[in-house]
Amino acid sequence: MPEVEERSRERGRLMNLAAVFYAVFVIAALIWADLAELPSALWTTRPDSWIDLVLHAGLGAGFGAAVVLLTRLGLSRIAWLGELRDWFAQLIGPLAWSDAFALALLSAVGEEMFFRGAFQPALGLIPASLVFAALHLPPSKRLLPWTISAGVLGLVFGLMTQWTGNLAAAITAHFVINLFNLKAIAGRDHFREG
After folding, report:
1. Where does the chain have alpha helices with state H?
2. 194 in a domain, yes or no?
3. Is the pLDDT of residue 110 over 80?
4. Which of 12, 83, 89, 161 has the fewest CB atoms within 10 Å, counting from its CB?
5. What is the pLDDT of residue 156?
6. Which domain, by its residues, includes 63?
7. Structural domain includes residue 193
8. Residue 135 forms part of a structural domain
9. CA 63, CA 86: separation in Å to the nearest integer?
């Protein structure tokens, strides 16, 4: 039982750290948007209707699902993906669906509000994508393709934001990618409820 209790405490610390980390992103985005008189950090422009918002979220979900599928297909074929999975598994340990959901939601909302909601309108698509990539620097040079792929994804998230005029597609895509990849990494596809 002490091992289960310790794992529970570690998960609690991870979730608290993530909540604080991504709250800083959200607060920074809101302050930046206000000081720079940018459109709202949550919606770069208002969608014409809730239907548009749902369609944009659907676009993001479809893109996110395609990235997850490509990641799963690449795991057995691309060495750095396996190394990245192993590094993350060691870093975060096993995650329940509820933890993976919370981490994916926190990261998607926090990062997209900051990078696409405040940074991109203020400084541009390319600088936002490059800094987003830099946020994903790995501990090993062998994992630099992850940084490059994060930059490419940041560019796509930024283009979706420009095209749709809001963050729904980017947040949803980011959430789907993180949810399923986090769960696969942390649980090695052994999904547990909790």
Report:
1. 2-35, 50-75, 79-92, 97-114, 120-123, 125-135, 144-164, 168-187
2. no
3. yes
4. 12
5. 98
6. 2-187
7. no
8. yes
9. 25
